[in-house]
Design goal:
The complex is a heterodimer.
Chain A lengths: L1 H18 L8 E8 L4 E6 L6 H16 L8 E4 L2 E8 L2 E8 L4 H19 L4 H6 L1 H11 E2 L2 E2 L4 H14 L1
Antiparallel strand pairs in A: 1-2, 1-5, 3-4, 4-5, 6-7
Chain B lengths: L6 H12 L3 H20 L6 H17 L7 H7 L5 H14 L5 H15 L3 H14 L2 H16 L5 H17 L6 H11 L5 H17 L8 H12 L9 E2 L2 E2 L1 H11 L8 H17 L6 H20 L4 H16 L3 H21 L3 H9 L1 H8 L4 H14 L5 H13 L10 H26 L3 H15 L5 H13 L3 H13 L6 H14 L11 H9 L7 H16 L6 H14 L5 H14 L3 H6 L12 H29 L2 H8 L7 H5 L23 H11 L14 H12 L2 H16 L29 H10 L2 E6 L3 E10 L2 E10 L6 E8 L4 E5 L11 E10 L7 E9 L2 E9 L7 E3 L4 H10 L6 E6 L7 H10 L3 E2 L9 E13 L6 E14 L7 E6 L3 H16 L26 H8 L1
Antiparallel strand pairs in B: 1-2, 3-4, 4-5, 5-8, 6-9, 7-8, 9-10, 11-14, 12-16, 13-14, 14-15, 15-16
Helix pairs in contact in B: 1-2, 1-3, 2-3, 3-5, 4-5, 4-6, 5-7, 6-7, 6-8, 7-9, 8-9, 9-11, 11-13, 12-13, 12-14, 13-15, 14-15, 15-17, 16-17, 16-18, 17-20, 19-20, 20-22, 21-22, 21-23, 22-23, 22-32, 23-25, 24-26, 25-26, 26-28, 27-28, 28-29, 28-30, 29-30
The chains are: A alpha+beta, B alpha+beta.
Chain lengths: 169, 1062
């Protein structure tokens, strides 16, 4: 029947579209740290610049989506035309928005790397550390992700600038 | 330490944290912002350190989701600070707060460049990172050569080079010309020799972007990538810092394999062998381990390897190995792995189709069908969605029956079985998912149906049991399908007849059954229980319970039954006729029209046969459903959220208004609203061809009527009076009135000829509809009455010889309440009174039920609630009709729920005024305009005008006696897209009207508010009142009550026109 052809046409288009994705694909679109109450603790956007209202709406939607999920469910949520890879540490959710073709598990472990890095710096990092040392959390993230791509995965390299600064002051 | 130095910040953060609720938090934040604003004002005394502290606070407030519209200059200026801590803050906060199009960035482009080419590598890093995050085209042009130099420089340390690589990636995306392909393929190849894994990670991202754009130029890099992968996979020379749970940088491995997937094949046998060895090692060597992180990292690499193997069209052996692995993943309990297994399975499916490699590999996947079906029932929606996609992809003739039936079960199953936490999320996502399931089941059923009757069975079952999730497209498609397959028609009709026996039937099922029986029930006439009369009885039982769109279909069905009523059964005919007669006065126009037409047609005998003959076959076309899956893939959840909302609205909205969204038309502007065809359905209209158009899509039909045949209405003596006035009102406001008037004349000329053709080309042409001689005329000018009511809260809105409509309004912040007083002036009752409010998009309005009859000499009061959502000058229209004797009167009246009603006068001190005034920095927040042609008024009257516009005139602020300072607050409810929390938005707007003492017909108005839209709308609103002082120079929007009167210069003189009216 007619449908068959059309579906395969459709598929081919999807494949072709996927092939040229590289140019505009950002990889990581945003990194969000949100606590159980839905309060944002860290937010960094890489892809498009959102207006404040768009940002609020987006954060509200995805936080609700992720908070509603149980521990037994997978760590990936499809949202609009991208995915959210998320991980929960105590009261804090780490949410990373990525393009659909990004490797989800790699991002999931990247979150953990971020947490371990903060842990190395703060020692037993908790929500309050991030809250009251917002600038340091930003410095670390800045060393790890740039323009939606991973820059550095070595903890000592990531922490080097912060340590340098602490020594200086 | 950086932090201990910023005690103020810590205090602020903990204050915010201790806030009990959002309101407190907002107060605290506002206080802090006020403080910072003041400090920045007196910038002179501010040290870099203090600036740094405030800038962090601003970032914190920004992160909490508050709008911070100042402090950008200060932030950006920190970039030029000499010391590292300040500079760092400047760079980091700038890239959080600003975007690439921000003007402020241009100011610092030189500083940034100096940092990049300077000797201080920490400064270099900061600058490169910021440009890498938010650099735009201008940065690209001026900085690209410097950044390239840093990347390839041998004297630069890795920490700078890795940032240079990603910075260059940004600049390249902004302007691909900055990377010259010829030079770069060699350079890239050298860069890939890099030993430092940090630099390599960054360079790999750059490489992926370059190669995705031009594969040919980078073939020479392919062996390098394989080498890198080998090095990582064999763990050669990997510093421990880059080993993550024993796995050499999983991220670099993944990225490298991603880069390799851009090359279509690998021709060089040595490279190919080397790569396959590595891949084989990954495929075989990844075991499930206990440590979650190690497990995830290993599987991240494994999945990327799988994707690469599939892409490279590997040997069959390796492929089956992959498929076996996928089978394992699909069955595994760990949700992440299962999700990815299903995801990958789908990619594999897609690749199979592309490579025509099909059969045996596909067979292996099919062996896992039952496991995939299990995943379809998983509580996790992410997994279910993947399973659905995979099943959809793998469905073919052999397994279609099983898969479709499984999908069917899934759609049908009790949606409440999953008692997860957030109800709202559950609703939208579940709804979307079920809709998608239904859609895909319908497509597969059609595509792979082993026999046609099975298809009908499946779809009817789907509609019956999961009607809520079946979009209209699905049942349209069934009808098309049945219409085009003659063999199927009796079967489908019989099935439909069976379903109608059921006591509680989903409305979609009623629609499809009624349609099918209308078309094909005569094929069943010999069967028991299928005589026209029995069919009629069972269908008409549904009539009281269905909505308007279904009634329309049922009416068509009755007409068709009537046509097949041979030998004629007068009793049946009488029953059907009585239904038609009953619906002639139904609230919905479409229904009225159908009833009238069918009734008229059915008395014409043979004409009926022609018009109501069976529908012809549909041209073969793409199933609309497939198109829909495409759309669905984009954003199902969002769409469904909207649909749910619209469904909820349907339940209490009035019929006329909710038709529009269904047609997918844009939010209605006022003109569009007035476009409704005027309905004189009492008239025995005769559209001889109309019903052959009776598409299965009732909406199509509705449109054809709107455009085509309205004017066929036989002129009745009564007609609405004020349509033109209403049409012209907004036109006069929005455009130059001059051209509008001649256009109107033309129409009138056209209309004076009896053959006036209906023409829906322009909104003005619609005036034709109303251009019938009127016997009921409004008393006094409606536009004038309206204008007066814009400035006061009670008065007469409309009056004619039968009815008087008075209005009284109360306003409280963004809420308003009107009471409409409908008074019958006659000694006999007014009947069929109908009032419908057509609100503009920015107002929520609810009119309480208007009684159908107004007793003689009585007055009815109808409250009308208004909620203002945002600033706009669009107007609400009241569509009112009533019947007096045989005359039907229909008027459309503008409701004075205008912008200024939501203002509240506010008196403030001079100090406060100037503070606010200065903080509004110019367009679009602050606008200025010189108005000419202002009606000369003494200052005191001007002040009165503003007072009646609900604004406070504040004396003593401006010393110039010719200037007026006016102040008010504007109230609107701004709804957030999802949360639907109600927050009250108090924008204060300051207006200064400065008059030129020598010339009172011109003045300059400057006004500002915190919202650019409000500023603009308010300016226009005031302009309307100043330029055409409503009492004396009404806009030319007066309805031509006597179209017979020759078109004379009278129209150019409002005074004369007015005289004619009175």
């Amino acid at each position: 029947m007619l449908g068959g052809q059309l579906i395969s046409v459709l598929r081919r288009e999807i494949v072709e579209e996927g092939d040229e994705k590289g140019v505009n694909s950002m990889g990581i679109r945003f990194v969000l740290l949100v606590n159980k109450q839905g309060q944002t603790r860290l937010a960094q956007y890489y892809a498009e610049h959102l207006t404040l209202d768009e940002r609020r709406a987006l954060e509200g939607e995805i936080v609700r989506k992720c908070l509603a999920r149980t521990e037994q469910q997978c760590s990936f949520v499809e949202h609009r035309n991208y995915k959210i890879v998320y991980r929960r540490y105590a009261s804090l959710f780490f949410l990373v928005g990525v393009d659909n073709d990004e490797n989800e598990l790699a991002i999931l472990e990247f979150i953990h790397l971020f947490v371990e890095t903060m842990d190395r710096h703060f020692g037993n990092v908790c929500e309050l550390d991030i809250m009251f040392h917002l600038e340091k959390a930003h410095f670390m993230l800045e060393e790890m992700v740039m323009n939606g791509c991973i820059v550095e995965t070595s903890k000592s390299n990531i922490l080097a600038p912060i340590q340098l600064m602490e020594k200086a002051s | 330490m950086a932090l201990s130095g910023m005690r103020g910040l810590s205090v602020f953060i903990s204050d915010v944290r201790n806030c009990q609720n959002k309101e407190q938090e907002r107060l605290r934040v506002d206080k802090e912002l006020g403080n910072i604003r003041t400090r920045f004002k007196n910038e002179k005394g501010l040290s870099h350190y203090e600036k740094k502290k405030y800038v962090w606070k601003i970032l914190y407030v920004h992160m909490l989701g508050y709008d911070v519209d100042f402090g950008h200059t200060e932030t950006v200026s920190l970039i030029s600070a000499p010391k590292y801590p300040e500079k760092q803050v400047g760079y980091i906060v700038t890239s959080c707060l600003l975007n690439e199009n921000h003007d402020f960035l241009r100011i610092v482009i030189n500083t940034v460049r100096n940092d990049i080419i300077g000797r201080n590598e920490t400064f270099q890093c900061l600058a490169l990172t910021m440009v890498g995050n938010i650099g735009g085209k201008e940065f690209s042009e001026s900085l690209a050569p410097d950044v390239q130099k840093l990347l390839v420089s041998s004297s630069c340390r890795p920490l700078v080079r890795k940032k240079a690589a990603l910075c260059l990636l940004r600049l390249y995306r902004k302007n691909p010309d900055v990377v010259n392909i010829d030079g770069w393929s060699d350079r890239m190849s050298q860069l890939l020799d890099e030993r430092d894994l940090g630099v390599l990670t960054a360079v790999m991202s750059l490489f992926v972007a370059l190669v995705s754009n031009n594969i040919e130029a980078y073939w020479n890099c392919l062996p390098k990538c394989v080498k890198i992968l080998e090095r990582l996979a064999r763990n050669q020379d990997i510093p421990p810092e880059y080993t993550y749970y024993g796995i050499p940088s999983p991220w670099l491995q993944v990225k490298t394999m991603r880069a390799l997937q851009y090359f279509p094949t690998i021709e060089d046998p040595n490279t190919r062998r080397a790569l396959f060895e590595v891949l084989q090692r990954i495929l075989m060597g990844t075991d499930v381990v206990k440590n979650v992180n190690k497990n995830n990292a290993a599987h991240a690499v494994l999945f990327e390897a799988l994707a690469l193997v599939m892409h490279l069209d590997a040997e069959k052996e390796m492929m089956s190995q992959c498929v076996a692995l996928l089978g394992k993943f699909i069955a595994v309990r760990e949700p992440n792995i299962r999700y990815l297994g299903l995801y990958c399975g789908n990619c594999l499916e897609e690749n199979m189709t592309r490579m025509l490699l099909v059969s045996d590999v596909q067979d292996i996947i099919k062996r896992h069908q039952s496991q995939i079906i299990t995943s379809l029932k998983d509580p996790d929606i992410s997994i279910r969605r993947r399973a659905l996609d995979l099943l959809y992809g793998m469905c073919d003739v052999t397994n279609a029956k099983d898969i479709v039936e499984e999908l069917l079960q899934e759609v049908i199953c009790d949606p409440h079985k999953l008692s997860t936490i957030s109800l709202q999320y559950l609703n939208t996502a579940e709804f979307a998912m079920r809709e998608e399931l239904a859609l895909k089941a319908a497509i597969l059923a059609e595509k792979f149906a082993p026999d046609l009757s099975w298809y009908v069975d499946v779809i009817l079952q789907l509609i019956d049991k999961a009607g809520d999730f079946v979009s209209d497209d699905i049942w349209y498609r069934v009808v098309q399908f049945v219409t085009n397959n003659e063999d199927l028609q009796p079967y489908a009709a019989a099935k439909a007849r069976e379903y109608l026996e059921k006591p509680a039937l989903h409305e979609t099922m009623v629609k499809v059954s009624a349609y099918l029986l209308g078309e094909y029930s005569h094929l069943l006439a010999q069967r028991p229980g299928c005589s026209p009369k029995e069919i009629f009885t069972i269908i008409s039982e549904k009539l009281p319970t269905v909505t308007t769109s279904t009634i329309a279909i049922l009416l068509s069905t009755f007409a068709k039954i009537l046509m097949h009523n041979h030998p004629s059964d007068p009793q049946l005919q009488e029953q059907i006729w009585s239904i038609f007669r009953k619906y002639e006065s139904y609230i919905d126009v479409e229904i009225q029209q159908r009833s009238v037409e069918y009734f008229a047609l059915s008395r014409k005998g043979t004409a009926l046969m022609d018009v109501l003959a069976e529908m012809p076959k549909f041209p073969e076309r793409q199933s609309a459903l497939i198109k829909k899956t495409e759309d669905a893939e984009v954003d199902t959840a969002e769409q469904s959220a909207i649909r749910i909302r619209s469904l909820q609205q349907t339940s209490n909205a009035l019929v006329v208004t909710d038709q529009r969204p269904a047609n997918g038309s844009v939010p209605v502007s006022q003109l569009a609203l007035v476009r409704m065809p005027s309905q004189n359905m009492e008239a025995s209209s005769t559209h001889d061809q109309a019903t052959s158009q009776d598409q299965i899509n009732p909406q199509d039909r509705e449109f054809s009527h709107q455009n085509g045949s309205v004017t066929a209405v036989v002129p009745q003596e009564v007609h609405p009076a004020d349509l033109l006035g209403d049409l012209l009102g907004p036109l006069a406001i929005e455009g130059p009135p001059a051209p509008a008037v001649p256009a109107e004349h033309k129409d009138q000329n056209l209309l004076s000829t009896p053959e006036a053709t209906p023409d829906a080309a322009g909104p003005l042409a619609l005036a034709t509809v109303d251009d019938q001689p009127n016997s009921v005329q409004p008393i006094a000018n409606i536009a004038e009455r309206f204008n007066a009511l814009c400035l006061k809260d009670s008065g007469v809105l409309y009056e004619d010889s039968h009815i008087q409509i008075g209005i009284k309004a109360e306003w409280r912040s963004h809420h308003g309440r009107f009471v409409l007083f409908l008074g019958n002036k006659n000694t006999s009752p007014l009947v069929s009174v109908q009032a419908v409010i057509l609100p503009p998009t920015h107002l929520k309005m609810e009119l309480s039920l208007v009684p159908e009859t107004i007793p003689p000499r009585a007055q009815v009061q109808c409250p009308l609630e208004v909620v203002n959502l945002r600033a706009s000058r669009d107007l609400a229209v009241l569509d009112l009709s009533y019947k007096f004797g045989t005359a039907v009167v229909n008027v459309k009246l503008r409701i004075p729920a205008v912008l200024n009603k939501f203002l509240q006068p506010l008196s403030i001190s001079a100090e406060e005024f100037f503070l606010q005034w200065k903080s509004l920095s110019g367009p679009p927040l602050k606008l200025q305009e010189v108005l000419r042609g202002v009606k000369p008024l003494p200052l005191s009257e001007l002040a009165n005008l503003f007072t009646s516009l609900r604004m406070a005139v504040i004396p003593g602020i401006d010393t110039n006696p010719n200037n007026l300072i006016i102040c008010a607050t504007f109230h609107s409810e701004s709804t957030r897209a999802m949360l639907c929390l109600v927050s009250i938005n108090l924008c204060s707007s300051d207006i200064r009207v400065e008059t030129d003492p020598t010339d009172r017909t011109q003045l300059r108005i400057t006004l500002g508010s915190g919202d650019p839209i409000l500023t603009f709308e308010l300016k226009e609103c005031i302009k309307e009142h100043l330029v055409s002082i409503p009492m004396q120079a009404p806009t030319p929007g007066i309805s031509p009550i006597q179209p017979q009167s020759p078109v004379t210069p009278a129209y150019n003189d409002p005074g004369a026109m007015l005289a004619g009216l009175l």
